[in-house]
Amino acid sequence: MLWNKCIQFYFHLPIFVRLLLSVCLIMLLFGYIIHMIEPTHFPTFFDGIWWAFVTGSTVGYGDYVPLSTLGKTIGIILILAGGGLVTFYMATISAATIKHEKDLSEGKVSYKGTKHLIIIGWNERTRQLIDMIKTSHPYQDIVLLDQTKNKISYQDHSIHFIKGNPTADDILQKANIHAATHVVITSNPSLKENEADRQTILNTIAARGNNMEITIVAEILTEIQRKNAERAGANVIIRSNDFMSSLFFQSIFQASNIATDIIAKTLEQQQFCTIPIDQSLTSQTFRSCAQQLLENNKSLIGIIRNGEIIIHPSFELITKEDDQLIYLKSF
């Protein structure tokens, strides 16, 4: 009964562990046999093991060699049995390594880390976002979840790719959404605006259903779906069409690229940040807060009060305890 359990346990081990265990057992066995057959030339058990590994791996240093006919016969058997097994072991490791890297590139491997960021949807905005994150937060782990892309170079992007439907629970669990901190849901550029928003809302519902505490940032294209995205569980909603419309307006009526260049440079060199107001800054004027943050190379541009974003308020505005400060910070 015990022997059967040992055999079952052995065959349930990963193939690498089984092969390594088999190699070690064979080398121990032949090391013990040669030590018993020729104790003069192999005075210790370890000397026998050393000879077995050197011979079985076909390295052949020649510092220990059997002299008797029986010992040489054992050496021949070891070369035939152990050498082939060691070669097979190394070939298996090499093949498995290549297959694992291929599976990573094709999005077949589950993510095991924690405190990571999940991005749903691959497009140009996603690529730029990943570049910005890797520049400002190089140690932030990113998991990309997309069902349209077939392959992503693991080395080029330094992200973990998972291919699949972002509304499927098993795919979200492969991304380890339970241990993630944020989910960013981008709009699908290949769909019409209403269809893209509906897909974003479905993705939001699926993400919220798998993690009630995670922060979800969703891109919505039409104003009519904004409330639905909030009901679905999105914490932050980004209206990219509003931003693009503003850029078009500035380009038309400024009759130059100055406005768009300024915005592009701002986004390239600085990032928007929000923090709860420090107790030392409460009950002070906006001007005083801006001056104090400027000493730490932070440009205060607004506040969030009762859920309302106020950009460039009056310098005489008095801050309150529940305010959040909006500032720009250089990368």
TrEMBL record:
Residues 114-238 form the RCK N-terminal domain. The chain crosses the membrane at residues 15-33, 45-62, 74-98. PROSITE patterns: RCK_N (PS51201). It comes from the Bacteria. Its main location: membrane. It is a multi-pass membrane protein. One of its GO terms (cellular component) is plasma membrane. It is found in: Cell membrane. Keywords: Ion channel, Ion transport, Membrane, Transmembrane, Transmembrane helix, Transport. One of its GO terms (biological process) is monoatomic ion transmembrane transport. SUPFAM superfamilies: NAD(P)-binding Rossmann-fold domains, Voltage-gated potassium channels. PANTHER family: POTASSIUM CHANNEL PROTEIN 2-RELATED-RELATED, POTASSIUM CHANNEL PROTEIN YUGO-RELATED. This is Potassium channel family protein.
